[in-house]
Design goal:
Elements: H1 2-26, H2 32-57, H3 62-92, H4 94-104, H5 111-117, H6 120-133, E1 137-140, E2 143-146, H7 150-166
Helix pairs in contact: 1-2, 1-3, 2-3
């Protein structure tokens, strides 16, 4: 039982990945962000089940084990955060995309071909389109506004951590 408790964040991460894969394969509206959230919460649920089982087994000394339970929750959250960015990196990063396109092109790409593929206006339109589709941004009266603020709050939290941990003065440093 102790081994399962020690490995519970890793087990929860495995459930996270499997649930996300199942969501992508079997749910019709294959939205990446929703699948990542679904996987994360499935993993968190499994973690809570394992931790609850662990705490019940050691009922006489529950208070003594609360710190290790909290550490496992924090560990899984960190692993889930890393997995989210691992998937996101391969999906959205321009450098990754450019490297993929270069590897798929037998004759390489010229600067003009690259600039044609990475037109700033088109990139902005694609990003706005994704934000509108996910309702993170809404369009009314010829203006864009914050819609569902989940990702906005997450970006603010990451910015806060960057400033706090790295000592940066702004997000542009």
């Amino acid at each position: 039982m102790v081994y399962l408790h020690v490995l519970s964040p890793v087990v929860a991460l495995a459930i996270n990945v499997l649930a996300q894969i199942c969501y992508c394969r079997f749910v019709s509206n294959k939205q990446l962000l929703k699948s990542l959230f679904f996987g994360f919460f499935c993993g968190m649920f499994m973690l809570f089940v394992i931790e609850a089982f662990y705490v019940v087994q050691l009922l006489p000394s529950v208070l003594k084990n609360i710190p290790s339970v909290l550490i496992n929750i924090a560990s899984y959250s960190a692993l889930g955060y890393c997995y989210f960015h691992f998937v996101n990196l391969g999906e959205t990063a321009r450098r990754i995309r450019l490297l993929r396109e270069l590897s798929e092109s037998k004759n390489g790409l010229s600067v003009d071909e690259i600039l044609q593929r990475y037109n700033a206006k088109e990139i902005m339109e694609n990003r706005l389109s994704r934000l509108l589709k996910s309702e993170q941004v809404v369009y009314k009266d010829n203006r864009y506004y914050i819609g569902k603020p989940v990702m906005f709050f997450m970006s603010k939290a990451v910015l806060f951590l960057k400033v706090f941990i790295l000592g940066k003065k702004s997000e542009f440093e």
